[in-house]
Design goal:
- The complex is a heterodimer of chains A (579) and B (287).
- Among the domains of chain A are: 172 residues; 86 residues, Immunoglobulin-like (Sandwich); 114 residues, no CATH class.
- In chain A, 48% of the residues lie in helices and 18% in strands.
- In chain A, the strands form four sheets. In chain A, strands 3, 5, 6, 8, 9 and 10 form a six-stranded mixed β-sheet that branches. In chain A, strands 11, 12, 13, 14 and 17 form a five-stranded antiparallel β-sheet that branches.
- The two termini of chain A are 29 Å apart.
- Chain B has 287 residues and is an alpha/beta fold.
- Chain B folds into two domains: 208 residues, no CATH class; 36 residues.
- Chain B is elongated.
- Classes of the chains: A alpha+beta (579), B alpha/beta (287).
- At the A-B interface, strand 1 and helix 3 of A face strand 6 and helix 5 of B.
- Strand 1 of chain A pairs antiparallel with strand 6 of chain B.
Chain lengths: 579, 287
């Protein structure tokens, strides 16, 4: 039975408090990055309402800004047209500046408030088209008005060639103004409808539409009168003729416009073509006087355009052609984590050199241009997170309808390498912290009690009375107390030898208890070295042994082998002397 | 009695009291037993302090009040009380945002309806288009001294005479994005409306969240506080429902406790149990 007990081993055990602390650390460690276990923001909404107390209170009366601005834009456009009617161009310029500034402010608001998919965007789009028309109307009517002054100057200077030039430019401007007014008028119904939805007064706008009609009519009348007067006053040179022809009369993006003509009655072979009253191209006619130019329709606004040719002070008739808008398709795909690509086609024809606006949540973030095959690419500067990207083509310089791609969701993940490195560092630091804490705990416990690790320890039957007392003290460290001394059978010595290597203070303590018992102390476990000294005051060997014992047990000294042997020998001798 | 036992009893009673108080509360939306931000405990406290009568389960049905307020009714059950109020020329105030109140409105013969959906607006009080600002657009004594109200994810009303409406820059947020999606049109929505049901009137509020505690936690929230006080402060009597609406809801232990508490016999049983406890305590010489 005893042997069996002696072979029993005590498992490695850490004190419960150390284990609990270690578990707590393990549990807390993952939360160190985000230490808040609860914040009001975590409980910020239910199915029925938001928790307003955690939201930032920032009263925004946007309707109090946007709706008056829409009113002001209409009002400015009304006074602009009125001043154009009155030919008060300085006031009209001021109105135009104001109108453009208000329109810009409105455009910015729509983008800032992310209302790019709402009716506000529809209003903004219509107003942008109105803005283009009013800008053209302003420039053309002002130029038309300047022709009046030029006509007087050339008449005074008796310059019939330039008078003809004025007449033809007037013709071109008349056609253009008519076209612009038709464009402005064409969207009035839609504009009024959207505006009424927002309860915006449209009276000023509707008056402006009526005013543009009046301007167009007035220009038409003036030009007819001017042409009649000039043709009556200056007879055309009968020997010089320039004919000009166009084919076809209606073209679309990608079509070819054939411009041809013939000059006769002069040796001059350079013919200047004027498109919409602006020099467009100089051509050299053949020896027979014919000239031909083929123009592929690309970057030219949709609508009516006028063309005439002039050479050596002679003008051709004004011819016109219409550019009709094509539908566009705009694709958008992701080609990398932050890269996009796409293609712009006008009825299957690639559109070259066109600017594509890339928007993220309504904000423009890039403007790539298309290549000759209609494709475009962009490297976007996107932050980590989700981005709703759309591509838009809406450049009115092209005879193309607005195109918008499908929305593309781009999710930008944190950089892989950076995150992995951070993770590794965090794991490494955590492991270091845990190891240091664990090692420190073991070291401390060993230092304090020397009972952290144990070799196989023989279990010794304790006397009942000692066991009873030892329960309150150290359960495992208390060695048994021998009844009488016999070196061969002394369990105290065997306990000493068993503990000597692993826990020397405990081993020495077992010898001390044997001596305490020997001196007749009833409760050896509570006995001190002083108690024994009192009982054996004249025993110098015993006093020396007790001094060595105190140095080991309380002073923390670990004696060398010689001193250890001395302790054992002295112990045996003391036991034998008093046996 | 030994001091140790006395102390033990006191501690047990304190513990039971604390546990009882805790178990009576709930986190159910709009519940009057919910003292948190999403409940209506603060409104019922205000109603109590302004001498409004709280109609709870088990209480005897009082004489019809001049004003009857019901928050988030689940069905047409309160139509009996509401009809009595209307027949006496009183007003019935119904607040709802999920559309369950439509059954009650139909039962009362009203043509007004709640249209469920998150009405959002560019005119917002907080950093969310769902906390919208609406302005008074009609005349009513209920709106005396009120020009602007803040709503919290309201739905909208069709029919009736509009009293409070949103700005035209409002929409129904179907995507939850906080912005009008493709095809969504902007417009004005009615959030509070009235309709005469002879000889009384019904006032319909498209947002039960107006009564939630969170709306009262913000110190300055336009005229919301005044609106609640106007509802509770009238020349006649005001009764507030705590039976048929979601304000009577509770979950878990709170549900059981309030069910038992609301049973008429529960008080008698509780008194009897206490008496038994006292008798047993004397016999065991505890007391």
């Amino acid at each position: 039975m005893n042997d069996k007990k002696q072979k029993r081993t005590t498992p490695f055990r850490l004190p419960a408090i150390a284990v609990a602390a270690f578990i707590c650390l393990l549990l807390i460690l993952p939360h160190t990055a985000a230490p808040a276990l609860y914040t009001p923001e975590m409980d910020a909404e239910t199915d029925l309402h938001d928790r307003v107390s955690v939201l930032r209170q920032a009263t925004q009366d946007n309707s109090g800004v946007i709706l008056p601005l829409m009113d002001e834009i209409f009002s400015s456009s009304g006074t602009l047209v009125l001043n154009l009617e009155l030919k008060d161009f300085s006031s009209a310029e001021r109105d135009l500046d104001e109108y453009l500034a208000q329109s810009r402010q409105f455009d910015n608001l729509v983008v800032r408030l992310d209302m790019s998919q709402s009716d506000l965007e529809e209003w903004r789009r219509l107003n942008a088209q109105n803005k283009e028309d009013l800008l053209e109307l302003f420039n053309d009517t002002r130029r038309f008005s300047e022709l009046e002054q030029l006509e007087i100057e050339y008449r005074d200077a008796d310059n019939p060639d330039m008078l003809y030039s004025v007449m033809y430019e007037g013709e071109a401007l008349k056609s253009k103004i008519k076209e612009t007014v038709a464009s402005y008028e064409s969207r009035s119904e839609e504009m009024v409808g959207v505006s009424r939805q927002f309860e915006v007064e449209t009276e000023a706008y509707e008056e402006s539409v009526e005013g543009t009609r009046t301007i167009s009519k007035s220009v038409e009348e003036e030009q007819e009168e001017r042409s009649a007067v000039i043709q009556r006053e200056v007879a055309p040179r009968s020997d010089l003729h320039i004919t000009l022809g166009l084919e076809p009369a209606e073209v679309r993006y990608g079509d070819t416009l054939n411009i041809s003509g013939r000059i006769s009655g002069t040796d001059q072979r350079v013919v200047s073509l004027y498109l919409d009253s602006r020099i467009y191209k100089n051509l050299t006619a053949t020896a027979e006087g014919t000239f031909l130019h083929r123009e592929q329709i690309k970057k030219i606004g949709s609508g009516m355009h006028t063309l005439y040719a002039t050479s050596d002070g002679k003008f051709s008739d004004v011819v016109s052609f219409r550019v009709i808008s094509r539908n566009t398709t705009l694709s958008l795909t992701q080609s990398g984590s932050r890269n996009i690509t796409g293609r712009l086609l006008a009825d299957d024809i690639p559109v070259s050199g066109a600017p594509i606006r890339i928007l993220s949540a309504g904000r423009q973030i890039a403007t790539p241009k298309t290549t000759p095959d209609g494709s475009y690419t962009a490297d976007l500067k996107l932050a980590e997170g989700e981005h709703h990207i759309t591509a838009i083509f809406d450049d009115t310089a092209y005879p193309l309808l607005r195109g918008e791609s499908e929305e593309l969701l781009i999710i930008v993940d944190p950089p892989e390498e950076a995150r992995s490195l951070e993770d590794y560092i965090a794991i490494f630091l955590s492991a270091v912290v845990l190891i240091v804490i664990g090692a420190g705990g073991v070291w401390y416990l060993r230092r304090r009690s020397g009972t952290v690790t144990r070799e196989t320890i023989p279990v010794i039957d304790d006397p009942p009375e000692i066991i009873a007392e030892s329960i309150e003290e150290r359960e495992e460290e208390t060695p048994p107390i021998p009844e009488e001394f016999d070196p061969s059978t002394d369990t105290t010595l065997s306990t000493y030898h068993a503990l000597e290597e692993s826990d020397y203070p405990a081993a020495l303590r077992s010898l001390f208890l044997g001596l305490a018992k020997e001196t007749g102390i009833d409760t050896p476990l509570t006995a001190t070295a002083g108690d024994i000294r009192q009982r054996r005051s004249g025993d110098t060997d015993l006093h020396a042994w007790l001094a060595a014992y105190e140095l080991v047990l309380y002073g923390g000294q670990i004696p060398d082998a010689e001193t250890r042997q001395w302790c054992v020998d002295t112990y045996q001798r003391l036991r034998e002397d008093h046996a | 009695m030994r001091p140790a036992i006395l102390i033990a009893i006191i501690l047990i009673l304190l513990t039971l009291g604390a546990a009882g108080a805790h178990l009576q509360t709930t986190t159910t939306d709009l519940s009057r037993f919910n003292p948190g931000w999403s409940g209506t405990a603060a409104f019922y406290s205000l109603a109590g302090s302004m001498d409004a009568e709280i109609l709870t389960p088990g209480t005897n049905e009082p004489d019809p009040a001049d004003r009857y307020i019901i928050i988030a009714p689940k069905d047409a059950s309160p139509s009996g009380i509401a009809e009595q109020v209307l027949q006496n020329g009183g007003s019935v105030i119904i607040a709802d945002e999920e559309g369950d109140a439509n059954q009650l409105l139909e039962a009362l013969g009203s043509r007004m309806q709640i249209v469920p959906g998150n009405v959002s607006s560019l005119d917002m009080e907080f950093a969310s288009t769902r906390t919208i600002i609406a302005t008074v657009s009609g005349n009513h004594t209920l709106l005396d001294g009120i020009s602007t109200l803040t709503f919290n994810r309201p739905s909208s009303i069709t029919g009736g005479t509009p009293l409070v409406t949103t700005s035209v820059l409002s929409w129904t947020d179907t995507t939850g994005s906080g912005r009008p999606g493709a095809g969504a049109s902007l417009g004005r929505y009615t959030l509070i409306a009235r309709e005469e049901v002879d000889p009384g009137e019904i006032i319909l509020i498209a947002d039960a969240s107006l009564f939630a505690t969170t709306m009262q936690e913000v110190r300055q929230l336009h005229d919301n506080r005044q609106f609640l006080e106007n509802m509770l402060d009238t020349n006649g009597t005001v009764s507030v429902d705590a039976v048929y609406g979601k304000t009577a809801d509770a979950e878990g232990p709170a549900y059981i406790i309030h069910k038992v508490k609301s049973a008429p016999i529960s008080t008698i049983i509780a008194i009897l149990l206490l008496m038994v406890f006292v008798i047993v305590a004397f016999r065991k010489q505890i007391l």
